[in-house]
């Protein structure tokens, strides 16, 4: 059960010491520990130049250097945020709706697209996403 800690931006979860796996899994026990979540910051994604609609971010992941890659489902784009959560460069525009993004390697992204059965692989430079 999740509960808020009064007068803080903290959420704590009470869990049992062990939780059995579902019956269709091998009989093993998973050790569980209490979890404490702390709200560090929030960010409102605002409509920027080139956006037709207000952003609807459906995927985020961290690059190895601390930047964040994000995909905007409503504007068919991928953009990069720096460590201070400011957009870098211009967004890469897709022909289709992006759903999620994952970062791999040093500066590579894999983006899943909505209505196409493929993944779009991109290389991230200092400020932009470029397709290859």
What does this structure look like?
The chain is an all-beta fold. It has two domains: 2-38, no CATH class; 57-131, Thrombin, subunit H (Beta Barrel), CATH 2.40.10. It contains no helices and 13 strands. The chain is globular and about 50 Å long. The N and C termini lie far apart (45 Å). The mean pLDDT is 77.
Please summarize what this structure is:
The protein has strands at 2-4, 10-13, 18-20, 29-31, 35-38, 57-62, 68-72, 77-81, 87-93, 98-104, 108-113, 119-124, 129-131. It is mainly β and 132 residues long.
Helix content: under 10%
Rg from alpha-carbon coordinates: 19 Å
- Any idea what the CATH architecture of the largest domain is? Beta Barrel
Strand content: over 45%
Largest sheet: 4 strands, antiparallel
Unreliable sequence segments: none
The DSSP helix count reads 0
Distance between the termini: 45 Å
CATH domain class of the largest domain: Mainly Beta
SSE pattern: EEEEEEEEEEEEE
In total, how many domains does the architecture comprise?
2
Beta strand count? 13
| Arithmetic mean of pLDDT | 77
Strand order of the largest sheet: 6-7-8-9
């Amino acid at each position: 059960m999740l509960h808020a800690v009064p007068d803080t931006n903290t959420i704590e979860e009470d869990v049992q010491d062990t939780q059995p796996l579902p019956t269709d899994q091998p009989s093993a026990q998973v050790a569980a520990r209490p979890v404490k979540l702390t709200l560090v910051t929030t960010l409102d994604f605002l409509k920027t130049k080139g956006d037709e609609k207000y952003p609807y971010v459906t995927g985020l992941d961290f690059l190895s250097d601390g930047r964040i890659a994000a995909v905007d489902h409503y504007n068919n784009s991928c953009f990069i945020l720096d460590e201070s959560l400011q957009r870098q460069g211009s967004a890469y525009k897709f022909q289709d709706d992006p759903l999620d993004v994952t970062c791999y390697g040093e500066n590579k992204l894999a983006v899943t697209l909505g209505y196409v059965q493929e993944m779009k692989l991109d290389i991230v430079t200092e400020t932009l996403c470029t397709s290859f």
